[in-house]
Amino acid sequence: MSISPVSEIEQIESDKPDDLFICSTSFEERCINSVQHLKDEYTARRCLIVRYLAEDQDGLREKHHSIIFNRLYHHTENKKGITTIFFDKYDQYSSWDSLKNYCKDLASLERITIDITTFTKSYLLNLLGYLRDRYPKAKFRIIYTKGIYSENEPLTWGVKNITILPHYGRKWRDLKNSVLVLLLGYEDDRAYGIKEYIDPLKTIAVIANPPTYLGADKPSKVLNAAILNDPETIKINVSAMDPLETKNKLSELYKNNEYKNLGFFIAPLGTKMQVVGVYLFFEKEINPDMGAARAQIVYSHPAKYNEKTYTIKYDRKQVWEFYMEPREN
Description:
Layout: E1 3-6, E2 20-24, H1 33-36, E3 47-52, H2 60-73, E4 82-87, H3 92-103, E5 111-115, H4 121-134, E6 139-144, E7 147-148, E8 156-164, E9 178-183, H5 188-198, E10 202-208, H6 217-223, H7 225-228, E11 234-238, H8 243-254, E12 263-268, H9 272-285, E13 295-305, E14 313-314, E15 319-324
Parallel strand pairs: 2-3, 2-5, 3-4, 5-6, 9-10, 9-12, 10-11, 12-13
Antiparallel strand pairs: 1-15, 6-15, 7-14, 8-13
Helix pairs in contact: 3-4, 4-9, 8-9
């Protein structure tokens, strides 16, 4: 498993089409970048486009959906194999159920490509959790387009609700006697809201460093200054773009004898590649059949997205690929 930039997206196996290509539409223009980089010969047997239920005030979601659909039309083996599903980003159970419904007649998939660029972090975790469990022998490839963000604007405002993410250790409810691992991003309200909700014995703040690009860590440090400047906060750095580093650091913290009798809450507010690392941590360390898990994912939904300045620009020249080995050989 490694991450690398590419200017053209080829099939996972050169002599076989991908079984499934998945992406999402967004108000962000960078959601169209991956399909723009598909090699002329790239073919997928079927494509799934995820679209969120949201107001489309400027028509950007519809515009971007049309671009993605039209591009995928030329790369899909069966032209009727392109499906769009709508999803309520605030309903975590519906995402799992909609995936089960979509996959019910797909008995075997061996090569799956997922463009994670504009998925919500909670949907991405559900997507990986469901597909990796249903298709344990499949090869997975993650695609990501880097965005460039404002230095002084948060990505979201306020908190709509805070929840323990289903399918990720939801049985452990002792909030107070816990350690909270906050993977920090550009959403201070969500981070402060989770810290107040859990009120943990220990808080570990994770800064994305090395950052996605030079200087990308500075806004996070400014926006989350109250947490980072608290003398009780434990501060660590984890790569913004290497999921394996996130997975390994979480495993190290989880196995730390100092925390062995505490609940272990993870708040994935950092980068999408860090979220992939959070998933890989759960895949490696947590057995849902062994009773109540110490580890859980706590998630806060924002009240409002800062759509006007969410991403200033993005890397149009390339995408980043990360391969995940099958869960089973």
